Amino acid sequence: MELKKITTRAIAAGVAAATLLSLAACGSGSNSADTKDDGSEMTVEVFDSLASSQGLQKSGWFAKIVKDKFNIKLNIIAPNVSGGDTVFDTRSASGNLGDLVIVGTGNGRLNKLVKAKLIEDMTPYYSSMKNVKKYDSAVKSIAKQAGKDGVWGVPQGVSSQSPTDPSEGNESAAAPYIRWDIYKEIGYPQIKDLDGLLNVLKQMQDRARQDTGKDDIYAMSLFKDRDGDMMQNAASICSWFGYTNQGSVFISADGKDVQPATKEGGIYQQALEFLNKAESMGLVDPDSTTQDWDTMRTKVTNGKTMLSIWSWLGKPRMNSDENKAKGVGFMLAPLENMKVYSDGFQPDGDGATIVAIGSKAKNKARLAKFIDWMYSPEGIYASSSNSGGAACPKDLGCFTTDKDGKNPTLTKFGQQAMTGDHANLKVSAKLGGSSYDDGYSKLNFKAVSQNDIDPNTGEAYNPLLWKSNQDETELFKDWSAHMENATNDIDYLQKAGKLSIAAGASYTTPQEDSTVSATRSSVKSETVNASWQAITAAGKFEKTLDEARTKIDNLGYKEVLKVDQQNAKDLIQARKDIVKQAK
């Protein structure tokens, strides 16, 4: 995100904290069981921090499923679309955040929501929530985070799988993905390290320009509008080597190393140096310092880039069925020294985001049933979207099974919904009408890990992992032949010993002192600014970073680092604890 947005949100977070604390004494929530529900249609207001669209979802296939099962309509309030943290502040001040609440819990927010009586204790309904109860330890972890006994919410992304198994399914989130067709054209050269990757990317850029006659093709194109504690593009490159960032520090998957982004010669500086060298070689799109995500992703779709830092950038925009049949698309590069970071499955879910019932909601028992349904196989399929993850529902015509309910297989409709032209895929009127894209759930809440196992079929919810859905395209076959005959990216990384799995712990950073938050905001701004300056600083890379370290230290970074190091220590302990719990 842009620096202005970072600062604004940091200030807003402080206001939100003050708002919640002021409400703690005057909230009027009730933990008693609901009054009798007559079953009539009701419109449910959903405060949804994850949603990217808002308003009443009154038509389409998901709306019809929800209406038929629960006789409710969902009216989504999405701060991401309009209002930002101001929406949270205003609704909190009114004492009514929403009937259903999907919200982040970080920095002590959950504890404040409970104290302010803005969310309901679901204990009276919990005995009937048979699907949620399968993840009882996840529910208890939320109660611990809330600082009070009760059923205050259910986290997203829960799983029944081992926390030491990779949760991504068939591909890592952040890893070096290259235009495999162009890599093939230049003869599959060896890629030993990041310097070797730059040399290969230079050859690929030259070849692509030669093939097309276009000189606006670059090895990589970057963007600024999602930067946070640091430059996101560089931070993600650190994940290629087994690190994730939390606050201002990087933590290795095995927990043996914690280092600040400012560390001289550290993993973040190595990523910045890679980008600096790329810039000096003419491999970076000159629009990178000014363009946003939307502009950059359009360039990827139009074949203007050779490198994708993430699987979810290049693959969905280039690897269409038509392109893959021709051998065209992004595939994982054989970078010899990579050790790709992977999050393990989270038995206790992603405690950073929960779904809860608002204290002022009516017919709470019905809402509890709706939440429970989202954690059922039927609800998981019904919550599918158009960007990967779980298959769309069997009853929508998305897949079939054999007579025993096993061997799930996508239908033609399902294939188009999952990987084809889903925007123009029509849904019959009796199933909700309109198009597939118009109809999918706008909640953007994934209750259960999409790569978890459906107990009915015995296979993952994600159709990309089905036995019936193995990739047989020209692109995949050529890639596999050069990558140890791997069946997918994760399979290759595991076979080659290039995967670093961090145990899937549910951990949320606690509330921090307001002075630390204020200093953190300044540190973020300086870190991000210096990062962009460093990659474009011809001959002044080291000097730019040295000056930035001095500025950051003078801002009082020592206190922020102390907090982040303790939080890192707690995360590492949480990883150890979840592994013990799973045994």
Folded structure, characterized:
This protein has helices at 3-23, 61-70, 85-94, 109-115, 123-126, 136-146, 180-185, 194-212, 232-239, 267-280, 293-301, 311-318, 321-325, 364-374, 377-382, 412-419, 436-439, 474-481, 489-495, 514-535, 541-554, 557-582; strands at 42-48, 55-57, 72-77, 100-104, 154-156, 174-179, 243-246, 249-252, 258-260, 307-310, 330-332, 340-343, 350-357, 399-400, 409-410, 499-502. The protein is an alpha+beta fold and 583 residues long. It has two domains: 3-24 and 38-159 and 347-387, 3-Layer(aba) Sandwich (D-Maltodextrin-Binding Protein, domain 2); 168-343 and 470-583, Periplasmic binding protein-like II (D-Maltodextrin-Binding Protein, domain 2, 3-Layer(aba) Sandwich), CATH 3.40.190.10. The strands form five sheets. It has a six-stranded mixed β-sheet. A three-stranded antiparallel β-sheet has the order 10-6-11. A three-stranded antiparallel β-sheet has the order 7-8-9, with helices on both faces. β8 (249-252) and β9 form a beta hairpin. The protein starts with a helix and ends with a helix. Mean pLDDT is 93; it is low at 1-19 and 21-33.
